[in-house]
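Ticket opened by: R.M.
Priority: normal
Category: complex prediction / small molecule

The reporter submitted a protein together with biotin and asked that the result be attached to this ticket for the collaborator who will pick it up next week. Submitted input follows.
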Amino acid sequence: MAPALGHPRLHLRRTDSTNERARRLAEAGAPHGALVTAGEQTAGRGRQGRTWTAPPGRALLLSLVLRVEDPALIPLQAGVAVAETVGDAARIKWPNDVLVEGRKVAGILVEGRPREGWAVLGIGLNVAVRPEDFPPALREAAGTLDRAPEDLDPTLHHLLDTLERWVDADQEAVIAAWRERDALEGQPVAWSEGSGKAVGIDDAGRLLVGTSSGTIALEAGEVHLRRLGA
Ligand code: BTN
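Result attached by the on-call engineer:
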């Protein structure tokens, strides 16, 4: 069994990006489970070149160095673990945005060098962000657990325990748990090259979309997904 996640831990009051710090540690040989957390990020990275912002001291901003056999599963394992930490109301919008009542409370960014045997799992979770902290343009789409700043550390420990279980879980169990929280099933979706209705994920974690020319499978790396309608 792999050693516990979260050791060693580097906490920074302020940094550019915890993923960047963790990447440098991984390149320097940091072990599986090494954790970087920050109170504030000045250059937080999101998926597909986007940025990730959060008010200081109100969100979990963390990155873990993972040395696992199958890094392709990490995005789904992380989605399930974050959703489980958030609670029964959490749903996962493919590939791994965690939503509560349709609003995104957590984002996950996996970066790494599979051939060198490591990946960095970055998670931003809006634990104690106040709704008014979100810029007006994000207020419809962004969500928060609306807890107190004192809840950050207990939430981190809960998340690390939950992640530890899911990082050790096999593909079948991960896919089954992911499917139970699928936010898109039955919903109309669109991406740069088409549109259709989401019908679930396949056993490799690809999004299945029913279109007028049949069911197609989308890979997370390639697709900017938009949800159509409400
Ligand atoms: C997304 O676009 O949904 C993914 C957002 C991931 C943000 C987290 S915050 C901690 C870690 N450090 C980063 O620079 N990004 C990730």
